[in-house]
Amino acid sequence: xxxxxxxxxxxxxxxxxxxxxxxxxxxxxxxxxxxxxxxxxxxxxxxxxxxxxxxxxxxxxxxxxxxxxxxxxxxxxxxxxxxxxxxxxxxxxxxxxxxxxxxxxxxxxxxxxxxxxxxxxxxxxxxxxxxxxxxxxxxxxxxxxxxxxxxxxxxxxxxxxxxxxxxxxxxxxxxxxxxxxxxxxxxxxxxxxxxxxxxxxxxxxxxxxxxxxxxxxxxxxxxxxxxxxxxxxxxxxxxxxxxxxxxxx
Amino acid sequence: xxxxxxxxxxxxxxxxxxxxxxxxxxxxxxxxxxxxxxxxxxxxxxxxxxxxxxxxxxxxxxxxxxxxxxxxxxxxxxxxxxxxxxxxxxxxxxxxxxxxxxxxxxxxxxxxxxxxxxxxxxxxxxxxxxxxxxxxxxxxxxxxxxxxxxxxxxxxxxxxxxxxxxxxxxxxxxxxxxxxxxxxxxxxxxxxxxxxxxxxxxxxxxxxxxxxxxxxxxxxxxxxxxxxxxxxxxxxxxxxxxxxxxxxx
Lengths: 249, 249
Hints:
The complex is a heterodimer of chains A (249) and B (249).
Chain A lengths: L3 E5 L1 E7 L2 E10 H9 L3 E5 L14 E4 L22 H16 L4 E4 L1 H9 L3 E3 L2 H5 L12 E4 L1 E2 L4 H6 L4 E4 L4 E4 L4 E5 L5 E5 L6 E4 L9 H28 L6
Chain B lengths: L4 E5 L1 E7 L2 E9 H9 L3 E5 L14 E4 L22 H17 L3 E4 L1 H9 L3 E3 L2 H5 L21 E7 L4 H6 L2 E6 L4 E4 L4 E5 L6 E5 L6 E4 L10 H13 L4 H5 L1
Parallel strand pairs in B: 1-4, 1-5, 5-6, 6-13
Antiparallel strand pairs in B: 2-3, 7-10, 8-9, 8-11, 11-12, 12-13
Helix pairs in contact in B: 2-3
């Protein structure tokens, strides 16, 4: 059985076929294809803030992109350009914290990276052009900005990305303070491009969109970490069963 | 005790939302909310993945509504009004057969019920107005079937077979919404346990053995009557030893 990788979904009024502006759980298919292509089995996780028990069946988690996080989560007032989805926020903060607690392998993408930073006690810039003085990280609607990232020597992301450091960005917010995470990637203008938690098995957040190029470097590392955890779980379970004299193992 | 994990088959569709126009894995939130309201935890299963291993993680599965099933699967030529999605068909037929083989509790909604029939050797009527001479099983021509609420569906009664599992759940007669132009002709391995009294169109099919397998032609997720979702959640909890009744059994 392949490692099961959960992908958080957006909830948006969507239009297709005969339907118009119907509340829909959705995620760009690129995420699913990236997980499948890297050997994982994707399941989509629509928001649900009752509990985070679903992580019990997951071997890995992708925190997807989307709208802005509610600034209340990091103790700020909303700026004029901040657009939030409270239903996603409450469910995903719960999920992210439970995943970190359980040492579940996590890849955060765009909003997902920002969520990792906030869940780790950090904070965001609510409108990066105010800080950087340019729109290069979101040049125009539905147009990705091309950035060349600089990675911290010895970091996980540096090892995974190698020499090809060109990334596709689309965001207007950014990490101001990564909390207990380590900033391991920057754009040339100083915007945070990657964060990691060196104390955990696999916690990586990237500000860009690796799913649009089905980047096997990152999604492959996630599924590899998920498979490794799954194998460890199985061994632990087997040892426990044998110790208890359970013939079913 | 964790909630039963209920998989929902989803679509891969080109959708428009917030100025985006992308291929997305998606499902109307009404299904997700129906699962959460009846004590389950919903995850979405994307239709393009060549494998059934995901079923091992689930306690129950809902085959959701959607487009027509390719009539080649029961050896018929396509009707001019038939519009099929071959990728989704193959993926869901594989999942359906594997779920039934594994004894996983199954709920089929609209297309999902038709899939239960086709997956087990049954067949469909491809265009109901040709058979019954009226179009009351879907919303009036020219109306947006789901734009406002369930009142935009056609509505009619369903009479239930005495002694059936469905009657135990729903009683002898229910009024349902309706939005379909195809219907079950031969229910395959299943038993018909509900009909539209006006035209004898099949509205409910169910399994004969102990495994919970129920198909309904209407859209309970668009109503406040979620009894069939509650029954699925209960069967899922029971099978996985998550309910008090499950522990006592």
